Amino acid sequence: MARVIMTVDDSTTVRQMVSFTLSDAGYQIVEACDGKDALSKLGDSATIDMLITDLNMPNLDGIELIKNVRTQPRHKFVPILMLTTESQETKKQQGKAAGASGWIVKPFSATQLVDVVRKLLK
Amino acid sequence: MSDRQPDSAQHRDIQSPGEPLSSSSSSKADLNEMELSTIWNREIADHIRQLRAVMQTSEDGFLSVGSKLREIHLSARNVSQKLAGLVDNYSAEGETNSINKLRVMSDCSTKQLDSFNDFSLQAVAHLQNLESPLASLPESLHEFDRLVSRLRKMGTVAHIEAARIGDEGLDFIRLAETVSVLGEKITAKAREVRTYIKGASEVIALNKGKMEQVIGKHKNITKLVTNDMKSNLQVLDEKHELYQKITSGISDKSEDALRNVHVVVQSVQYHDITRQQVDHIIEALQSIQQQNSVFEAVPICQIQVAQLRRVGLEFEDAVLSIVTALGQLSNAVTTMLSESEQMTNFTKDSGTTFFEYVERGVETVSATMMKDWYAVQELISSLEQISENIRKMKSFMDEMANVGSEIELLALNSRVKAARTGSSGAALAVIAESIQHLSLVALDQVDGVVKQMSHMVTVSGDLTNNHTIETVTHRAEIETKNIIEKLRDAIQVFHSDNAMTIKIFLETESICKAMVGQLESLSKEIGRHREIALSLIKTGDMLEQLAVRTRASVPDSARAIIDERLEEMRKRYTMETERETHNAVLSGNQTQAGMPSGGGSNIELF
After folding, report:
1. What count of other Cβ atoms lies within 10 Å of the Cβ of residue B440?
2. In this structure, are residues A29 and A5 in contact, taking their beta carbons and an 8 Å threshold?
3. Residues of B whose CB is below 8 A from A96
4. Higher-confidence position of B243 and B278
5. pLDDT tens-digit profile of B331-386?
6. Structural domains counted in chain B
7. How many CB atoms sit inside 10 A of residue B482's CB?
8. Chain B residues near residue A99 by CB distance under 8 angstroms
9. Domains of chain A listed by start with CATH number
């Protein structure tokens, strides 16, 4: 059974690229266009094996999304990867404090992304 | 950053950029109150709209690019998988390898042909064993004929003598007549025996000749056929190696193409980076509109001009690098296409012709083995016939022996009677003795011939009734047919493999042709995004003109303050800190923004 990964980004192109790269590696991908859309798709019962999210998004940004997801018991320990253009240390610390498991600064290479996902899912 | 709050009570508009201020307005208090005109704000708003429109166009364009890249990736992966499968097929060892199958069957057919050869040599040796004794029989029979002729003459003499002595000679007349009749019988049998000897000799000579011809031809054919097969197998091995090498090469190129697609995918992310950077710039420009002070507006505007130029140039570079990567990918695919076309032609022309040649070789081997098989069948049938002839000859000789015994007995009785007759029967007694003697000699002769024939019967019986021969020939038939079937199967597998290779390369060609078209169209589409980059730079130029005009329209002292602010901002601001600062300004909090983090890896796991 393929692991389910949710990718959240307001850029359709980025979501396309993430989906493209990870589905080739054998993962099932669910897309959301911002934090609010992501929470709506997760609902009360849907479960994912990993979350990959951008930081700066309309409606609900990445940090708030992570905080929300971590309150859900079924996603308390799910790996969460930030995939963003931001590289500031303060931002990274905010992400880590909210519950992020890792941080990738764009642009990402397909190999890098797949390696990190595999590591985190182990 | 110094606190400069706009004071609406002492508001003074700059009527329009470029219009000189009157000297009465050059007091320090007036400088504090230099605010932006609505025209300034309108121009900024226009530029913001322009930037948004440009990025939306870019976003739409890149969505289409993403989809097309996906199709190209799927095509590249399809090709890569097909070729990898073909390479695996060529690398297969053991039974799955069709050349090995052919090699094994070729060895079996060589052994089979050799075993036929051995059998033929044995058969010829046996025929020779029969030939010599058979050849000596006519001489023995000739001797026998002379004896029988003498016997019959003696019978005539006895007849004459018996007639001379009158009634007492009547028994002897009967003896003479009986000898004559029996003599004829023996002569007739001897003729039959001669006929069978001739028949058997002819069959032996014919078969010996045939087998010697077969052996002679067979040696040459076996040598030709096995050498032919060996050289075919060698060529097959070479072709196989070549196919494997070429296919691996094309397969490696397809893997490279797949990797190149990923490189292009990675480059496409620059669009998103540019989008976010332009978003930051737009936010900064919006903050100018919010602030409405020339001392903030002009430096911020000039900072954003530099940012826009940088972003525009970076985006242009990214677009060019994508176009270059697509060009490289296109070259790789074109090379793959050309090599696939070559491989298809190679496989079709020489491959097919060569396999037909191998097939003919296999058919020749098969036909040779079947001919051998038929020759052996014929030989066995002839040997059975020879055996039958010899048995018949022996039975005739047995009959002749019986007749001889009968004559001998008659002669003995006549002797006894002649002795009783007295002096008148003396001559008859001598004649009867001669007859008896001759018949005994004849019997000896027959006995000798019968012994020879018994031996020949045994020899030919060994050859035809031998269980081993039956088993060998039966097994040989099954084995021959089995080998022929497997040789033909191996050829069929070759044809299938060849057909599959051609099919895969034709499919590869078709996919590569489609990919070349898709890449060309994608390259043109992405090339158009250069205009987006140029548009960003142009917007930057227009913003600069606005800033310059505004700066030129203010007094020198105001310009000095503006320049001071600009220098301060340049030292401290980056895209990230700028964002935070502008957020802080917008929310009324004038705290310092943090500095950006240094360089390093783009991945961090917590």
Report:
1. 16
2. yes
3. 606
4. B278
5. 888 888 888 888 888 777 766 666 677 777 777 777 877 777 777 777 777 777 77
6. 1
7. 13
8. none
9. 4-121 (3.40.50.2300)
